[in-house]
Each structure stands twice: as structure tokens, then as C-alpha cells.
Automatic annotation (TrEMBL):
Pfam families, sorted: Zn_Ribbon_1 (PF13240)
Domain Zinc-ribbon: 2-24
Residues that span the membrane, as ranges: 65-83, 95-116
Alphabetized UniProt keyword annotations: Membrane, Transmembrane, Transmembrane helix
Organism: Mariniplasma anaerobium
Protein name: Zinc-ribbon domain-containing protein
Domain of life of the native organism: Bacteria
Amino acid sequence: MYCKMCGREMDDDAKFCPSCGEPVEDDMFETEESSETKKSRDYNLETLLGVLAIVFSLMNYLGVFFVHLIGIALGSIVLNLVNRDKKEKKIFSQIGYVTGIIGLLLGIVAIVIGISTQF
């Protein structure tokens, strides 16, 4: 291991550089475990979009027509963001994941009800 301040070689278990006295930081090198537990950069976005998916899907039941399509689109976006985070082994918003699924399902049910009432 080398000192990040002066570049001199030192023992792997050293607490300080023998040349300049710079303390060795334990988190100087990223481990495999810490890279797997990084929070997604879209964590808050996933939650927000999931909640909005539910809101837009429910607005259809209140008489605002066609907004359930926005809810379906937002729910789909959340699921895509979460699946990308899962592949990259990042921490994703579980609330966003659940609300995205609920918003998507509510939108689909609104479509089914709309189609069945036409016949």
C-alpha cells in the first residue's frame, strides 16, 4: 500500500505513514460489499412516481377520464427504474416499487371497467 499524501510505500496494516505521518483511512479503498449496497440515485424519484401513478389512476374513478393512462405510464416507468436498480445491485425504493405496481394495476382495472361498461 502507498501513502496517498507522499506516495511512499508502507505496510498494509499501518495506521500512519512512516514518512509524512498522514493517517491511513479505512474507507480509502471501496470493497465489493460496499459497492453492492449503494443507494439508487433515483430512489426518491421512484417513490414520487409511484405515488403519482396511484393518484392519476384513482382520478379516473373520480370522473376525470383518460388520466389512468398517465398512471399506467408512470407505474411502468417506476418498474423499469426498479428493475435497472436490481440489475445494478443497488438499493431501490420499496415504497416506489409497491406504489408503482398498485398504480399500474389500478390503471389497468380502470381500462377493463371502461371497456366492460361500453357493452
